[in-house]
Please model this.
Amino acid sequence: MVVEAHSGKVLMASNSVVKRPVASLTKIATGVIAVDWADATGVDLNQTLATVPASALAIGGPNPMNLQPGDQLTLRDALYCALLGSDNLAATTVANHVGAEILRARGRSGDGVEAFVKEMNELGKAIHLSKTRFANPHGLELRGATGVSTAADVAKLSVYAMRKPGFTFIVRQKERQVTVHGAGGKRSFKVKNTNEMLGEPMVLGVKTGTTAAAGPCLSVAVDREPLVRTKPDGEKGVTPRRLIVVVLNSPDRFNRARGLVRQGWDAYDRWVAAGAPVGSRGKEILDVPNPR
Model:
Protein backbone atom coordinates (compact mmCIF):
# COMPACT_ATOMS: atom_id res chain seq x y z
CA MET A 1 0.00 0.00 0.00
CA VAL A 2 1.26 3.45 -0.96
CA VAL A 3 -0.73 6.44 0.29
CA GLU A 4 -0.18 10.20 0.56
CA ALA A 5 -0.81 10.80 4.23
CA HIS A 6 -2.29 14.30 4.24
CA SER A 7 -4.81 13.85 1.43
CA GLY A 8 -5.34 10.13 2.08
CA LYS A 9 -4.95 9.47 -1.65
CA VAL A 10 -4.24 5.81 -2.34
CA LEU A 11 -1.56 5.80 -5.01
CA MET A 12 -0.77 2.09 -5.29
CA ALA A 13 -2.19 -1.06 -3.75
CA SER A 14 -1.81 -4.80 -4.23
CA ASN A 15 -3.41 -7.43 -1.97
CA SER A 16 -3.72 -4.55 0.48
CA VAL A 17 -6.74 -5.92 2.38
CA VAL A 18 -5.51 -9.51 2.77
CA LYS A 19 -5.25 -10.47 6.45
CA ARG A 20 -1.89 -11.80 7.58
CA PRO A 21 0.58 -11.56 10.47
CA VAL A 22 2.54 -8.29 10.46
CA ALA A 23 5.23 -9.13 13.05
CA SER A 24 6.75 -6.11 14.80
CA LEU A 25 4.73 -3.59 12.82
CA THR A 26 2.43 -4.33 15.75
CA LYS A 27 4.77 -2.19 17.85
CA ILE A 28 3.57 0.92 16.00
CA ALA A 29 0.32 0.54 17.93
CA THR A 30 2.27 -0.16 21.14
CA GLY A 31 4.20 3.07 20.74
CA VAL A 32 1.10 5.08 19.88
CA ILE A 33 -0.83 3.87 22.94
CA ALA A 34 2.11 4.68 25.22
CA VAL A 35 2.62 8.16 23.74
CA ASP A 36 -1.11 8.94 23.76
CA TRP A 37 -1.36 7.80 27.39
CA ALA A 38 1.61 9.96 28.41
CA ASP A 39 0.11 12.98 26.63
CA ALA A 40 -3.29 12.42 28.24
CA THR A 41 -1.93 11.99 31.78
CA GLY A 42 0.98 14.43 31.68
CA VAL A 43 3.47 11.66 32.43
CA ASP A 44 7.10 12.38 31.52
CA LEU A 45 8.43 9.40 29.58
CA ASN A 46 11.98 10.41 30.52
CA GLN A 47 11.29 10.31 34.25
CA THR A 48 8.98 7.31 34.61
CA LEU A 49 10.64 3.98 35.35
CA ALA A 50 9.06 0.78 34.08
CA THR A 51 9.88 -2.60 35.57
CA VAL A 52 10.47 -5.69 33.46
CA PRO A 53 7.70 -8.14 34.47
CA ALA A 54 8.34 -11.82 35.11
CA SER A 55 6.01 -12.65 32.21
CA ALA A 56 8.36 -10.98 29.71
CA LEU A 57 10.92 -13.80 29.76
CA ALA A 58 8.27 -16.31 28.73
CA ILE A 59 8.00 -14.60 25.34
CA GLY A 60 11.29 -16.01 24.12
CA GLY A 61 13.31 -14.65 21.23
CA PRO A 62 16.39 -12.41 21.32
CA ASN A 63 17.20 -10.56 24.53
CA PRO A 64 20.20 -8.41 23.52
CA MET A 65 20.20 -6.36 26.73
CA ASN A 66 19.80 -9.46 28.90
CA LEU A 67 16.72 -7.93 30.51
CA GLN A 68 15.68 -9.74 33.67
CA PRO A 69 12.52 -9.51 35.78
CA GLY A 70 12.89 -6.58 38.14
CA ASP A 71 15.20 -4.59 35.85
CA GLN A 72 14.06 -1.02 35.34
CA LEU A 73 14.40 1.51 32.53
CA THR A 74 12.58 4.71 31.68
CA LEU A 75 9.52 4.41 29.50
CA ARG A 76 11.29 6.43 26.81
CA ASP A 77 14.28 4.07 26.81
CA ALA A 78 11.91 1.11 26.72
CA LEU A 79 10.19 2.68 23.70
CA TYR A 80 13.56 3.23 22.01
CA CYS A 81 14.33 -0.45 22.55
CA ALA A 82 10.91 -1.54 21.26
CA LEU A 83 10.58 0.80 18.27
CA LEU A 84 14.21 1.10 17.17
CA GLY A 85 15.66 -2.23 18.22
CA SER A 86 12.35 -4.12 17.99
CA ASP A 87 12.96 -5.63 21.44
CA ASN A 88 9.99 -7.78 22.43
CA LEU A 89 10.73 -7.76 26.17
CA ALA A 90 10.90 -3.97 26.12
CA ALA A 91 7.55 -3.79 24.31
CA THR A 92 6.04 -6.06 26.95
CA THR A 93 7.55 -3.90 29.70
CA VAL A 94 5.93 -0.78 28.21
CA ALA A 95 2.59 -2.57 27.89
CA ASN A 96 2.69 -3.94 31.42
CA HIS A 97 3.46 -0.55 32.98
CA VAL A 98 0.99 1.54 30.96
CA GLY A 99 -1.73 -1.11 31.15
CA ALA A 100 -1.39 -1.35 34.94
CA GLU A 101 -1.58 2.44 35.24
CA ILE A 102 -4.72 2.52 33.08
CA LEU A 103 -6.32 -0.13 35.28
CA ARG A 104 -5.32 1.73 38.44
CA ALA A 105 -6.78 5.00 37.14
CA ARG A 106 -10.07 3.19 36.52
CA GLY A 107 -10.08 1.67 39.98
CA ARG A 108 -9.53 -1.83 38.66
CA SER A 109 -6.97 -4.58 39.02
CA GLY A 110 -5.81 -7.21 36.59
CA ASP A 111 -3.17 -8.03 34.01
CA GLY A 112 -1.46 -4.88 32.72
CA VAL A 113 -0.44 -6.39 29.38
CA GLU A 114 -3.94 -7.70 28.76
CA ALA A 115 -5.41 -4.27 29.55
CA PHE A 116 -2.90 -2.62 27.21
CA VAL A 117 -3.72 -4.95 24.32
CA LYS A 118 -7.38 -4.12 24.85
CA GLU A 119 -6.48 -0.45 24.39
CA MET A 120 -4.60 -1.34 21.19
CA ASN A 121 -7.75 -2.94 19.81
CA GLU A 122 -9.86 0.02 20.97
CA LEU A 123 -7.52 2.27 18.99
CA GLY A 124 -7.99 -0.04 16.02
CA LYS A 125 -11.75 0.45 16.21
CA ALA A 126 -11.42 4.21 16.62
CA ILE A 127 -9.31 4.67 13.48
CA HIS A 128 -11.21 2.01 11.50
CA LEU A 129 -8.64 -0.78 11.29
CA SER A 130 -11.45 -3.08 10.20
CA LYS A 131 -9.31 -6.15 9.48
CA THR A 132 -6.86 -5.86 12.38
CA ARG A 133 -6.73 -7.77 15.66
CA PHE A 134 -3.87 -7.24 18.07
CA ALA A 135 -3.07 -10.22 20.29
CA ASN A 136 0.01 -8.90 22.11
CA PRO A 137 2.19 -5.76 22.21
CA HIS A 138 5.17 -7.18 20.30
CA GLY A 139 3.86 -9.04 17.24
CA LEU A 140 5.34 -12.49 17.77
CA GLU A 141 3.11 -15.38 16.73
CA LEU A 142 2.44 -17.20 19.96
CA ARG A 143 0.10 -20.13 20.46
CA GLY A 144 -3.36 -18.70 20.94
CA ALA A 145 -2.08 -15.12 20.60
CA THR A 146 -1.39 -14.33 16.95
CA GLY A 147 -2.50 -10.97 15.65
CA VAL A 148 -3.40 -10.13 12.07
CA SER A 149 -3.64 -6.99 9.98
CA THR A 150 -3.42 -5.82 6.37
CA ALA A 151 -1.21 -3.47 4.38
CA ALA A 152 -4.08 -0.98 4.22
CA ASP A 153 -4.67 -1.09 7.97
CA VAL A 154 -0.95 -0.76 8.73
CA ALA A 155 -0.90 2.28 6.43
CA LYS A 156 -3.80 3.81 8.40
CA LEU A 157 -2.06 3.08 11.68
CA SER A 158 1.17 4.60 10.35
CA VAL A 159 -0.59 7.77 9.18
CA TYR A 160 -2.14 8.16 12.64
CA ALA A 161 1.12 7.40 14.47
CA MET A 162 3.16 9.89 12.43
CA ARG A 163 0.76 12.67 13.38
CA LYS A 164 2.14 12.33 16.91
CA PRO A 165 5.30 14.42 17.46
CA GLY A 166 6.30 12.27 20.44
CA PHE A 167 6.07 9.09 18.38
CA THR A 168 7.76 10.61 15.33
CA PHE A 169 10.68 11.84 17.42
CA ILE A 170 11.37 8.30 18.59
CA VAL A 171 11.13 6.43 15.29
CA ARG A 172 13.28 8.90 13.35
CA GLN A 173 16.32 8.24 15.59
CA LYS A 174 19.07 6.17 13.96
CA GLU A 175 20.40 5.08 17.35
CA ARG A 176 20.04 5.92 21.04
CA GLN A 177 21.93 5.19 24.23
CA VAL A 178 19.69 3.55 26.84
CA THR A 179 20.25 2.66 30.48
CA VAL A 180 18.99 -0.38 32.38
CA HIS A 181 18.92 -0.33 36.19
CA GLY A 182 19.39 -3.87 37.50
CA ALA A 183 20.45 -5.74 40.61
CA GLY A 184 24.10 -5.32 39.64
CA GLY A 185 23.83 -1.61 38.98
CA LYS A 186 23.41 0.40 35.76
CA ARG A 187 24.06 -1.03 32.31
CA SER A 188 24.21 1.13 29.17
CA PHE A 189 23.50 0.01 25.62
CA LYS A 190 23.43 1.60 22.19
CA VAL A 191 20.20 0.66 20.42
CA LYS A 192 20.33 0.95 16.62
CA ASN A 193 17.28 1.43 14.43
CA THR A 194 16.51 -1.62 12.29
CA ASN A 195 15.12 0.62 9.52
CA GLU A 196 17.94 0.78 6.96
CA MET A 197 16.24 3.64 5.09
CA LEU A 198 16.78 6.11 7.93
CA GLY A 199 19.37 8.66 6.89
CA GLU A 200 18.12 8.73 3.32
CA PRO A 201 16.60 12.05 2.19
CA MET A 202 13.33 12.92 3.98
CA VAL A 203 12.84 9.44 5.49
CA LEU A 204 11.19 9.71 8.95
CA GLY A 205 10.60 6.11 10.11
CA VAL A 206 8.37 4.06 10.76
CA LYS A 207 9.01 0.37 11.68
CA THR A 208 10.37 -2.96 10.53
CA GLY A 209 9.16 -6.44 11.38
CA THR A 210 10.11 -10.03 10.60
CA THR A 211 8.85 -13.42 11.72
CA ALA A 212 8.66 -16.76 9.96
CA ALA A 213 4.92 -16.39 9.39
CA ALA A 214 4.88 -12.69 8.46
CA GLY A 215 8.07 -12.57 6.44
CA PRO A 216 10.07 -9.34 6.16
CA CYS A 217 7.76 -6.33 6.64
CA LEU A 218 8.25 -2.57 6.56
CA SER A 219 6.28 0.61 7.01
CA VAL A 220 8.12 3.79 6.04
CA ALA A 221 7.19 7.48 6.04
CA VAL A 222 8.86 9.81 3.55
CA ASP A 223 8.30 13.56 3.46
CA ARG A 224 8.64 15.95 0.54
CA GLU A 225 8.95 19.72 0.51
CA PRO A 226 5.47 21.28 0.83
CA LEU A 227 3.72 22.29 -2.37
CA VAL A 228 3.33 26.09 -2.43
CA ARG A 229 0.80 27.64 -4.80
CA THR A 230 -0.72 31.08 -5.20
CA LYS A 231 -4.48 31.17 -4.63
CA PRO A 232 -6.82 33.33 -6.76
CA ASP A 233 -6.90 35.93 -3.97
CA GLY A 234 -3.11 36.20 -4.02
CA GLU A 235 -2.59 34.27 -0.77
CA LYS A 236 -0.05 31.46 -0.67
CA GLY A 237 -1.43 27.96 -0.23
CA VAL A 238 0.88 25.40 1.38
CA THR A 239 0.17 21.68 0.97
CA PRO A 240 2.27 19.29 3.09
CA ARG A 241 3.25 16.03 1.40
CA ARG A 242 4.08 12.68 2.98
CA LEU A 243 4.12 9.15 1.62
CA ILE A 244 3.40 6.10 3.73
CA VAL A 245 4.67 2.90 2.09
CA VAL A 246 3.85 -0.52 3.54
CA VAL A 247 5.25 -3.80 2.27
CA LEU A 248 4.41 -7.15 3.85
CA ASN A 249 6.26 -10.43 3.28
CA SER A 250 8.78 -8.83 0.91
CA PRO A 251 12.20 -10.57 0.82
CA ASP A 252 13.87 -7.34 -0.37
CA ARG A 253 11.69 -4.99 1.67
CA PHE A 254 13.99 -1.95 1.70
CA ASN A 255 14.69 -1.87 -2.05
CA ARG A 256 11.04 -2.70 -2.72
CA ALA A 257 10.03 0.27 -0.57
CA ARG A 258 12.55 2.55 -2.28
CA GLY A 259 11.05 1.65 -5.66
CA LEU A 260 7.53 2.23 -4.35
CA VAL A 261 8.53 5.65 -3.01
CA ARG A 262 9.66 6.70 -6.49
CA GLN A 263 6.58 5.26 -8.14
CA GLY A 264 4.35 6.74 -5.46
CA TRP A 265 5.60 10.29 -5.93
CA ASP A 266 5.26 9.92 -9.71
CA ALA A 267 1.65 8.81 -9.28
CA TYR A 268 0.99 11.64 -6.82
CA ASP A 269 2.42 14.25 -9.23
CA ARG A 270 0.20 12.97 -12.04
CA TRP A 271 -2.84 13.08 -9.74
CA VAL A 272 -2.15 16.66 -8.64
CA ALA A 273 -1.44 17.76 -12.22
CA ALA A 274 -4.84 16.37 -13.22
CA GLY A 275 -6.54 18.48 -10.55
CA ALA A 276 -6.55 15.85 -7.76
CA PRO A 277 -9.78 14.20 -8.93
CA VAL A 278 -11.60 11.71 -6.69
CA GLY A 279 -14.12 9.45 -8.41
CA SER A 280 -14.95 7.15 -5.50
CA ARG A 281 -13.86 8.42 -2.11
CA GLY A 282 -14.38 5.04 -0.44
CA LYS A 283 -11.97 3.35 -2.85
CA GLU A 284 -9.49 6.13 -3.55
CA ILE A 285 -9.08 7.85 -0.17
CA LEU A 286 -7.70 6.22 2.97
CA ASP A 287 -9.65 7.98 5.68
CA VAL A 288 -7.85 8.08 9.04
CA PRO A 289 -9.94 9.70 11.81
CA ASN A 290 -8.35 11.63 14.65
CA PRO A 291 -10.39 10.38 17.64
CA ARG A 292 -10.35 12.17 20.97
About this structure: The chain has a mean pLDDT of 93. The chain has eight helices and nine strands.
